Amino acid sequence: MPLRSRLALTASLLLCATLLAGCGLAGDTSPDAAEPGTWRPASGASAARIAGSAQVGPTTGHAPPPVVAPAGPVHIKRHPGVDCAIAKCVALTFDDGPGKYTEGLLDLLARENVPATFFLLGQNVQQYPHALQRMVTEGHQLGSHTFTHPDLTTLPPERVADELESTNEAIRKITGFAPDTVRPPYGAHNGATDRLIHDPLILWDVDTLDWQHHDPARTVSVAMEAVRGGSIILLHDIHKTSVQAVPELIGRLKGQGYSLVTIDELFAGTELSGGQALTRRPVGGQA
Ligand SMILES: [Zn+2]
């Protein structure tokens, strides 16, 4: 082969190698390259949901990401190998936010690779659109906690409907989708409210009373005494002391072999209906 041809071939091979290395690098750093069962900060689907929502959301001071696909509700499954019908699963749930401590909590959860479920107050979400967008991209679940936090059992039907619809609309404006679970304030519900609520009612079996005592150590000890497989733990991200309890609580739960999951993951494989109230997922046939 003439020298000039050999040089041309060598140059071509070098170019190919460079391109391939570039492709390989991009693949390795993609969120979707994470191993199954590990936490993934943003799947293509959830990123697309955010991208779609950026067109309708309020101005947040952040440049809108490019629109890559239509928005739609997708929940990231971080524990695809965990069957919460038999495994020791537990769901951390945070009520009454978002608030000024919520993004700090999201930072903690990201560091611990732990998903949570946030039952949001409609009246708070407009003030913290970035927190909601992070919840979605970082794989957490969003639920409704009504707009103004009333006892729904004391309201006429039209006010109950308005509390639910206005909250869904406020969340939809920011994220592009409405939540599909409800936590009634104070856990208060009755036959009349259950008929008006078209999504499952997610209550809890572990009440840390964090809002009352504001003691991180007590929040952890109360939770650890009451938790069992399938539990739903109630916390409030509007209190600094509740957020401060989270790293220790997560460490203790993981240490006892619990898989920390979202509400959707906790009840995966079961049929839930509108107005049905749930306090935990029975595990291994227990009541
Ligand atoms: Zn509440």
Write the layout of secondary structure elements.
Elements (H helix, E strand, L loop, with lengths): L2 H27 L14 H10 L35 E7 L6 H11 L4 E4 L1 H4 L3 H9 L3 E4 L12 H19 L15 H6 L4 E2 L3 E2 L2 H4 L2 H11 L4 E6 L3 H16 L3 E3 L1 H4 L10 E2 L9
Parallel strand pairs: 1-2, 1-6, 1-7, 2-3, 4-8, 5-6
The structure holds zinc ion.
The site of zinc ion has 5 residues, from loops.
List keywords for this structure.
binds zinc ion; alpha/beta; 10% strand; 287 residues; two-stranded parallel sheet; TIM Barrel; 11 helices; 42% helix; 6-stranded parallel sheet
Question: Could you explain the architecture of this structure?
Answer:
With 287 residues, the chain is of the alpha/beta class. The chain has a single domain (78-278), classed as Alpha-Beta Barrel (TIM Barrel). 42% of the residues lie in helices and 10% in strands. The strands form two sheets. Strands 1, 2, 3, 5, 6 and 7 form a six-stranded parallel beta sheet that branches. The longest helix has 27 residues, at 3-29. Bound molecules: zinc ion. Residues 95-96, 145, 149, 185 line the site of zinc ion.
